[in-house]
Amino acid sequence: MIAILVIVAGVLAILEDLKDSKKNSASHHPGPIVKKYVDALEIALQSFDVQKSGKLVNNRIAWCQVTEVAAETAAAMASASLFFKKIDSSYSNLLLEHAQQLFSFADAYRGSYSVSIPQMQNYYNSTGYEDELLWAATWLYHASRDLSCLKHVAELNGQQFADWGNPTWFSWDDKHAGTQQVLLSRANLFGAKGMPSEENLDLQMYRKTSEATMCELLPDSPTATTSRTKGGLVWVSKWNCLQHAMASAFLAVLFSDYMVTAQIATLYCHGQLYSPADLRDFGISQADYILGNNPMKMSFLVRGASIPADANTTCKDGFTCLDSINSNPNVAVRAVLGGPFLNETCIDSRNNWMQAEPTTVLSLSVSSPA
């Protein structure tokens, strides 16, 4: 959640700066791009103090390298520009402009926030910023059709950053699978106008890695992953384990749709052939597990507790509700729990945040496969 707050705070700070600058000058672009984004990230980093104390104190945090945060925000702005393209073209163009600038900033000042902010390592430790740079550049390509973005993920950084041939899990920390499947496999399957042959060859490597990931997800594939519960749930980590299952389901359903649209009948997995329907069935099986088709006969899509919101509520007030034996004071409809342990047990307790904590990353993953 801290990483998400940083991203949100950074975006809000940037957009607020843009709004103020428009009031002051309609003909001049806001100040130097590096200074502007440094200021935004400095404000965003103060959200860590909010998490700890519940109150924003008047302190100033020195700027440090946080490439993952900057690149993730650039990706978010680029994807949002696609959403608003037909609704509000001016706003869409504004988002794209600043996504490009923020990506340039992230790429020029490379450094992981886990190194810059060591105290984060015990909570949201980043395994590296390389995948976020690929993620941002790929979203920028789809939003702008700028072939230089493809060059960034292919010829310039593909071999160094992409880890071709090694399937990974799509999660809040690792965007490789999303980059390979959601975005670059699409570009390879449906073509990119004017794409140089060098970039196209590299995109084929992304697609092959995506296909290898799909083969690992299919339960009866020769290369099926063993990272599953006996009930069939993809299970990678005890913390918020459902994020991997639902992200995998999302990728499988999406790749299935790509195959249908591109009129590709089969996926080859070490001597076995699978259809788009097989991938979709896998995705449905993960969703069904979460909804109660599991050995526990337990649905993880439930009503969850949250603290009442008012002007005087702070983070500390949550502990009053956490430790209370009373009924939930407020209800968050459609909250999704973190998920079961590998042995398919789950303790439904407020204090069991390892399994019972609902998160935004999980809620988004659950809504995606639909």
TrEMBL record:
Any one GO BP annotation for this protein: cellulose catabolic process
Pfam families: Glyco_hydro_9
Superkingdom as given in the UniProt entry: Eukaryota
Reaction(s) catalysed (UniProt annotation): Endohydrolysis of (1->4)-beta-D-glucosidic linkages in cellulose, lichenin and cereal beta-D-glucans
EC number, as in UniProt: 3.2.1.4
Gene Ontology molecular function: any one: cellulase activity
Residues annotated as domain Glycoside hydrolase family: 66-360
Keyword annotations from UniProtKB, A to Z: Carbohydrate metabolism, Cellulose degradation, Glycosidase, Hydrolase, Polysaccharide degradation
Enzyme class, spelled out: hydrolase
Protein family according to the UniProt entry: Belongs to the glycosyl hydrolase 9 (cellulase E) family.
Stated name of the protein: cellulase
